[in-house]
Every structure is written in C-alpha cells, then in structure tokens.
Amino acid sequence: MSTAQTTRRAADHIVDLLIAQGSTHVFGVPGESYLPVLDALHGRDKEIRFITCRQEGGAAMAAEAHGKLTGRPGICMVTRGPGATNASAGLHVAYQDSTPMIMFIGQVARDMMEREAFQELDYRRMFGQVAKWIGEIDDPSRIQEFVTRAYRTALSGRPGPVVLVLPEDMLYDEITVPAAPRAGSAPRYQPSPDTMEQLRERLAQAKRPLIMIGGGGWTDKGIAALAKLAETQGIPVTVSMRAQGLIDNDHPNYVGHFSVGPTPYLKEALDGSDLLIAIGPRLGEMTTQGYQWLKPPVAHIPLVHVFPQPEELGRVYEPEIALASDMESFCCAVAAWEPVAQDRFIARTADLRGEFETYISPSAVPDDPLAPMFAHLNDVLPSDAILCNGAGNYAGWLHRFYRYRSAGSQLAPTSGSMGYGLPAAVSAAVTKPEREVYAFAGDGCFMMTCQELATAAHHDLRLTVIVVNNARYGTIRVHQEREFPGRVSGTDMINPDFCDFARSFGAHAACVDEIDGFKSALASARARGGINLIEITQDPNLLAPGKWLA
Q: What's the domain count of the chain?
C-alpha cells in the first residue's frame, strides 16, 4: 500500500490490510452479509487466496490449523447467524489450543441492529468465553485500527482467536485510507533475571528434574533452544497432551507424552521427580489425568511454571517459581547456561528414554493389529510429513506409535474436537504443498467434516485420509462399558461405504484390515499423489492399544 492517503471502499481496505499483515489465505464459506469483501478478493489470488470450504466449522478449523503451522493468525470469514454458530467449533479449538486466529463475521446492516433482524446475533455475548477480543466495526474510518489490534491481540501473550464483526452496509462505504500499517508481531516477554537466578539455584539442588512442554506460541528458534537446553543440562523432556510436534521424538532427552489415558512409566517418573519445569502448558485436565497426577492448589512436586500470560500463573497450581515469559525468550536464556548438574541427571534421562522406547514398540502389544500399521508410518514417511487428527480412540494408536520429528508435523486439537483432522489436512495441503499431508479420523470423527473432501477436490490438493472404522463412537463406548457395562445406548453407528464415498470426489480409495494391505495401500497413495483414502477396519472390541472389551 502507498503511504499517500487514498480513497478506498471499506471492503477493499480490509483486504489491503490482510495482505499488508502477511496473510496469504482466507478460509471461509461465502455469504451475502460480506459480499463486498468477496468482491474485493476477486483477482487478487496471487496476493491472498480464498479457500472455499463446505461448512463453516471446517473453515474455522482449517484457519486454526493455518495459525498453528505459520505462527501468524489464521483468517476465517463466515456469514452471520448460522454461519457464525457453525464456525464456533473452530473458534473453541483456537481458544483452548492457544492458536492465533481472526474470524471475520458478516453482520446485519447498522440501521437494522437491535431488532433481531434476519440472522442477527450479539457476537460479544455469544463468543465472550472463546475469544480474546470481539470487536464490531461500525465506523469504517477505524478499520485499520481494529484490524491491526486484532493481529496484535491474537499474537500477544497467550495467543488466541479474535472476532471482528462487519456490518454489511459498512463494507460499501468509501473512506480515506490512513498511512500504511505496521505488521503486527508477537512481542517478546523476557524472563526476570532475578527469577532466572532462583531457577538456576533450584536446579542445582535438584536430583530428579523433569521438563514438560506444551501450549501455543512456540517459534522455530524457541524449539531449537529447547533441544539445546535439554542436551546441555541433561534433563528429560516430556510433552503435554498433543504437543509432541514441539520436539524431535528421536531426541535422546525426549521421554514421552502425557495423553488422555494414563501412561504408567510417566506417572512413576512424575511422582519420582523433585522439580517439574513446565514450559508453556496450562497443566490442564487431560495432561494431569483429571488434576489427580498433580493435585491443586499446591502440587506434591515443586513446580516451576513458565507461561506468557501472567494471569495463568497460579490460577490452578501455585508454583514455587513463576516466570512470565514467552517460550522463545525463556528457552534461549536457559540454553545459554553452562551445565548446572548434567552428570547427576543424564543417567535417569537415559533410563526414561529406554522406558519410552519400550512403550512405543508394537511388541509391547503383540495381539494388537493396529499397532504395526501406525508404527510402519515411522519407516516410510518423511520427517516433515504433517499428520492431522481429531478426537476418538483411534488417536491413541497414532500418538503412541508415531514419532513426530519436525516442527509443524502435528496438527491435533488439545480441545478434543472431533472432525478436526480433515479440515486441518486441507489447510496443511494449502499452506505447505511441498510436504506430505495425512488426515487421521475414526468413522465418527470423519463423518463430522467429511464434506471437506469437496474442498480438497475443488482446490486440487494432495492429501491422504486414513479412516479407522469400528462402526461406533468408540471413545464414548469405552466410557459406557466402564460405567454401565452391557447397556449400549446411542454409540452404535451405520456408515456409508467410505471408499465409494471418497471415489465420488475423484479420490483413490482402498480398504484394508491387516499390515501387508496397509503397507501396499500407503505406498500406492504416496506414489500416486492427489487425494487418497485408506479405510482400516477395526475390530469393534479393540478399545485402545492392546486393550480389548473382553
């Protein structure tokens, strides 16, 4: 944009600002409430591309995945009323996953507000608990102020989603454009030197420290610094739920993943630690096994908590040392330290690494037909492949047996949202077309957003969907059988022929039930490119890795 003042239509000004902020893609479903913005996007595909999705929930999840992959706010555009309510699922993912995202919502015209006009909603009330800020642009002369603030808010502190509401008539207004904007960036929060010295002294006293990483807002520089500090200090590193992509799982200091289900050796490691250094995670319900492995308000293990939002520190757990810092600044500072007590820590780290490698070996569950399939992925997929999943018991095999080896290789909702895998894969294929992309889903998970196969076909994307079909809502069935054994209610499913369904979109498809068939189908999909679907039929009595209903 020129620094000279010019007159522009409000909708064109919004698109100009998105481009100036570095946004390259908009994920959305077209709607009449923001037609001028769609018009403003016309002919600008080389600068910013509108990805037409088939349901607003899928569009919002795709935008959230874009935010995870790029570190910049994912952009979603939806129409008012039903469009916004559909999109709320993706907004919730962004909030709980601490992902930068901006959702633009068309709104009724300004002279119709407060009348419950057609599809009118109050978005400040509706999204008050799932967005960092909700703004409505009534005055077009303030568009740049609002959009710039939206980017900075989405990126600052604990990253998260922002909602900007666009009254339909405002988008047609002609305005004088102010000076060119400065692209919003995430400010760094340097850890306090005095508190860092306390940490160094506390680490020197420890005998069995443990690092847990997680949360949003990580950068490539921060991830590299984390690996260096782990090596230099000799400390074992674990990850919170679905944060495995933050460290190379082949790193000798990586020892495992706190997931939905309990992992016995990690429980022992946590209980045996005399210092827990949590860098980035909120230490939520899933990671702490219902707040039982660490009981609030004061955990039985001395806690050092590093988090970019001061209000989070001490909200659930009272830390011994609290550091308000972004992860990059903290990790870079500690990575520069000389070894504090490395010789005292490395033997325990090696032992925990050995337990981890035993746990992720398919031989640990010899009667499990799915384990070797998921382990096979390690043998053939490149280290930068992007694996996406939603929620369901199928994810237990993926998270246990696959080793994530590069930043951005895991797109998975810590919010536990079903249906996330395919929209995330669409986003990954659009954002990183040079990388192999895989969506994993159960049959229930896939059916929630399966229409986004049309989006993949429409935009000629390259991705492979792997559907694990047990003809039931498997996770809920596990809970049901535990709480009310033999009393099945609402968890059985009737599914379409998934292979025929995929072929109707022009995809190639294969159905397998054993390892040799899976190897062949995966090799064919990788060689072929385009859209592929592999259906794995799962014995309904197989509930989790190595665990059967009987």
A: 3
